[in-house]
Write a structure and sequence with these properties.
The protein has 69 residues and is an alpha+beta fold. Helices cover 38% and strands 28% of the residues. The protein has one domain.
């Protein structure tokens, strides 16, 4: 499964700042556009890992989590 995500990038002084409309809780920043995008990617991955951890904590013993991708 490959779902393309988009980044909205703004210049703020000497920094680039990026937000992902599909994952509004994640943002990135960097001195270059490339560094900013990588920062955003890492933020999205950390957020997804955190959400997966939360889901596992809420899981009761009668249910199971299956990886989709």
């Amino acid at each position: 499964m490959n779902i393309p995500l988009t980044a909205e990038i703004h210049r703020d002084g000497g920094w680039y700042v990026a937000f992902c409309p599909e994952v509004p809780e994640a943002n990135g920043q960097g001195k270059t556009q490339e560094a900013c995008i990588e920062s955003l990617r890492q933020a999205i991955l950390l957020l997804m890992e955190d959400r997966r951890e939360d889901a596992r904590k809420r899981l009761n013993k009668q249910n199971v989590l299956l990886e989709l991708a």
